[in-house]
Amino acid sequence: MDVLTMGRVGVDIYPNQSGVGLEDVTSFTKYLGGSATNVAVAAARHGRRSAVITRTGDDPLGRFVHQALQGYGVDDRFVTSVPSLATPVTLCEIFPPDHFPIYFYGRTPTAPDLQIGPGEVDLDAVRSAQIFWMTGTGLCQEPSRSATLGALEARGRRGHTVFDLDYRPMFWESREAARVHYRAALGHATVAVGNLDECETAVGTRDPEQAAAALRELGVATAIVKRGPHGVLAVDDTGSYDIPPITVEVLNGLGAGDAFGGALCHMLLSGAPLEACVRFANAAGAIVATRLACSDAMPTTAEVSTFLEESAGVR
Q: Which of 101, 193, 250, 285 has the fewest CB atoms within 10 Å distance of its CB?
């Protein structure tokens, strides 16, 4: 496997109208969703062999998850069901350019993907994947927390082991509680990716340079700090790189981070220098921000390359 992700899955129910609250929306479309799942889809769009470790309900939406994964070319062998729970649903409101309230249903008091147990994870697959990608949400509750940390320990920092900081406050009792488990996971990761709020959860600061330094002090070789309209800061042993933003007309910003993640995986596997990896990933995220869906919106390598060329021409 090129890319093996582990974490959240669900069904996104997105409004077909923007600029209005859910109470006034008249039609919706369903899509595959969940951060770890979307990253696997995004990597597959770049021709990478990807799979996701997650769980669904034993219900029609769970069957939809399998159908969608197969349609995107993502291996679904590690997706199992929890008969007692429903597949979660996520709704959002779309108020471009920067307000996208998100509402999770079916995730309290728990969700199927938080019921991944340590004994259910194929550790040989975790060890052998060129990239293993896990998320902060997977640490918020047992048994998923123990399963995720166990997978990280079994992997032993092989290849690229990526911690997507992915902090969702509604899943935690406090930021401080999350920080304890984030720090435990960071000791097993080689790459950390997060926005300023997520970095504050992990290392206690929103200052990009300080956050990157703190992440590296905790053991990661590569720290990638997303700064929204101010671009991306990426730091590894070769240096510090300030990647400027790409200006686009935003339709829905919710899938941009997952597009960034899948594109980053693709470029890391290509052996490109960090600066080139992040420029490409940043462009993939910008493309998805101009589109409605998350999974359906993931661009191909050719689309990102063309977009980068056109963006350079505009500047």
A: 101
